[in-house]
Amino acid sequence: MSLAEARDKAFENRRCAQAGGDPLAEKRKVAIPTFRQAAEQRFEANKPRWRNAHHTASWWQTLERHAMPRLGNMRVDKIGREDVLAVLTPIWSTRMETARRVHQRIRTVLGRAMARGFIEHNIADAILDRLVHNAYRIELKSESTRKINARRGRRLKAKVLMYEGYVRRTTMSSDKTSGPVGAPTDSELRAAAQALFLDLDRGDLDFFATAMGKFVDDYNAIDAMDAPPLPTKYPRGEGYRPTGDENRYGAWQWKCSIKGAASGKLVGKRVAIKDNISVAGMPMLNGSALYEGFIADEDATVVTRVLDAGGEVVGKAVCENFCYSGGSHTSASGPVRNPRDPDFMTGGSSSGCAALILTGECDMAIGSDQGGSVRMPSSWSGCVGIKPTHGLVPYTGAGPIEHTIDHLGPMASSSLDCALLLEVIAGYDDGLDPRQVAALQAKPYSELVGQGIEGLRIGIVREGFGAPGSEADVDESVMAAAWRLQETGAVVEEISVPMHTEALKIMFAGSVDGTLSTWSDQGPAGGNADGHHPLGAIRFFQEARKTRAAELPDMAKTVLLFAQVMRARYGNYYSAKAQNLVRTLRAAYDLAFDTCDLLVMPTTVMKAHRIPPPDASREVVMGLTLDMIGNTAPFDATSHPSMSVPTGLSNGLPVGMMITGRYGEDDVVLRAGHAFETLRGPF
Questions:
Q1: Selected catalytic residue, list 159, 269, 274, 316
Q2: Among the ranges 24-28, 161-165, 235-239, 415-419, which has the highest mean pLDDT value?
Q3: Annotated catalytic, 269?
Q4: Residue 538 CB: number of other CB atoms within 10 A?
Q5: What local confidence, expressed as pLDDT, does residue 648 receive?
Q6: From the candidates 288, 328, 349, 415, which is the catalytic residue?
Q7: How far is residue 152's CA from residue 154's CA, in Å, rounded to a whole number?
Q8: How many CB atoms are located within 10 Å of the residue 359 CB?
Q9: 27 catalytic, yes or no?
């Protein structure tokens, strides 16, 4: 009796049993063939299909090699899952069947098997189908193809595990797969149900666990695929962490020398990269011991653009712990000291960038700004830094805090160098960064920066002065500098933007729920969105946070705990409401821009803080973290371009003036900065 006849007879026995007959008596009359017998029957039946004798011989050789040693003498109804894997694994290792085809084939075969009630019997049939219709082609594969497939062994393992998980779930032999992505366990489902306010009984759990089988398969299929990385175009060595006199101010996280193209706008320029921006092959700590051991596996888009323009990347600059401090005292590597007075802070969170520019160890740097982290260190250290219009510079490959406030921006010793670097790194990233819109185009900033500001209207925002914590000498220095802009031909007047006093509250509430997602379940990519996601950083963070969460700074813990409680109570209601209010805040500034071309106020209302002693209390350390962001943070939320230019020194420490422009008018902001530098003279 053939395998097909035996199967049909077994099906009749099952129907007989349902009708009240004696299926066992009927089944004893059926002679179930061994695998070898079934194979011989199938071999004879399919001979006419072979194109030549070579194909016939190849098929039988493959059968003898892969199947007969284990299955030859077994009855087909006794063949189980382990036998299936033992036979199909070497076939897949050569053919590299796609996950989709494997899924379709197995679903068809096992679906038929379940309908008939004899799963193992039809699994044997599936083995023969694969060998009869496909296996003989294995022998025709070239040696080069086999070598390629050998290099794809990791994919193969994932697919085999994926198939094993499918069989186990379908046959109800286990409630958990052994693939890279396992089926949800009872405890996981109960926890998920509780978080979703669902009351599930045992039947519900079983139903949903079974229904999720296809989803787990999909995840395993994704695991087996290769996602496109960001390009790494230029060779590099390993680099090193400098110590002692080579890192006097604690500003270097890592030193290296990555040479870019032989020609371009940045030839001869040494560029430092903030340590929350990926440079392939280099550590990226994001200021935190939580990331200890992580090596970036791709170059951020801005890094590639610097190298394409002929610049040299000379290393990674220290940043504050998770970039969540305007001071420079929270990094896991230690405080970053101000080269103008080492007892004081450089400002943060792009703290190392500012210090390296001041010491001349780099010509330019790229920092990030989510609440003022480019402009505040520029103010406290006495360099220039611009937070561009939101989305002008791609954030691709950098560690975020929250999508609506994430910015990367240039830092340098002059507005001219900032304009040159912005010209290189700005522009649409072909959809890789969801923060960007294609309509926001870069401009030739280095050509426009020298055009002057004659005839421009400049508004001095009263609410930016005299805020809590303000120092009188800072207010006076910035006010005097703003009025001096009249000497360049600009029209200067004082104006009022009453909503500015409420702006920090709106910015914080609008970003706190997204920050929770970035620093917890959604990881370094932030919220789910189009574009490129840093898979290496995501995987590392999700593992590290389970064992190293204590390494988070107190400020981050405070924000996360508060956000978690608010989310549990209200969902994202208040962050959503604050995001709606951001539009009102933006409109308030835009109303001022109806009568003014630029807005001016102090970057920070105080000069640099003194670095606290190592034994300072938690309250003191955290109190020096975010007390300086009142003027800078609002423009992270509203997207307006904003830069800090030093006005001079007071008691040996720099004072910064912040110049803010209309959306997309980064060139006008840079023109004003350059005009003031020309007026002020060397600093």
A1: 274
A2: 415-419
A3: no
A4: 14
A5: 97
A6: 349
A7: 5
A8: 12
A9: no
Name the 3-class secondary structure at 258. strand
Average pLDDT over every residue of 77-89: 65
Q: How many other C-beta atoms lie within 10 A of the C-beta of residue 206?
A: 15
Do β-strands 312-317 and 341-345 pair in parallel, antiparallel, or remain unpaired? unpaired
Contact 386, 374 (CB under 8 A): yes
496-536 residue pLDDT tens: 999 999 999 999 999 999 999 998 887 776 667 889 999 99
Q: What number is the average pLDDT over the span 89-93?
A: 52
In this structure, are strands 457-461 and 598-602 parallel, antiparallel, or unpaired?
parallel
557/323 Cα distance (integer angstroms) = 13
Name all contacts of 412-415 with Cβ < 8 Å and 24+ positions apart. 412/357, 412/363, 412/364, 412/365, 412/383, 412/384, 412/385, 413/357, 413/363, 413/383, 413/384, 414/384, 414/674, 414/677, 415/384, 415/449, 415/643, 415/645, 415/670, 415/673, 415/674, 415/677
Distances (CA, A) of 24 to 16, 27, 415, 667: 10, 5, 91, 88
Half-sphere exposure of 69 (CA within 13 A, CB side): 6
pLDDT on residue 37: 81
Going by the DSSP 8-state scheme, the letter that residue 136 receives in this structure is: G
In DSSP notation, 199-244 reads ---HHHHHHHHHHTHHHHHHHHHHHTSPPPPPP--S-----B---G
Q: Name which of 64, 105, 104 is nearest 87 in CA terms.
A: 64
The sign of the torsion formed by the CA atoms of 438, 444, 449, 454 equals negative
Say whether pLDDT at 112 is over 50. Answer: no
Residue 47 pLDDT? 61
Q: Which of 373, 381, 446, 642 is catalytic?
A: 373
Helices and strands in the chain, H and E counts: 26, 13
Cβ neighbours of 133 (radius 10 Å): 13
- For the question of residue 546 being annotated catalytic, the response is no
Contact 399, 523 (CB under 8 A): no
Strand pairing class (642-650; 384-387)? antiparallel
Portion of the chain with pLDDT greater than 70, in percent: 77
The backbone torsions φ and ψ at residue 246, rounded to the nearest 5 degrees and listed phi first, read: -75, -10
97 token code pair: 């069947």
Which of 36-45, 83-92, 470-479, 664-673 has the weakest average pLDDT? 83-92
Report the C-alpha gap between 488 and 516 in whole angstroms: 46
Region 284-312 average pLDDT = 97
Distance CA 310, CA 320 (A): 29
- Two structure tokens written together for 674: 């350059």
Question: Which SS3 state, helix, strand or coil, does residue 610 take?
Answer: strand
Please report the sign of the dihedral spanned by the C-alpha atoms of residue 435, residue 441, residue 446, residue 450.
negative
Which residues, 6+ apart, have CB-to-CB distance to 190 below 8 Å? 200, 205
Residue carrying structure tokens 């669902």: 198
How far is Cα 407 from Cα 400, in angstroms, rounded to an integer? 9
Spatial distance between the Cα atoms of 390 and 296, rounded to a whole number of angstroms: 25
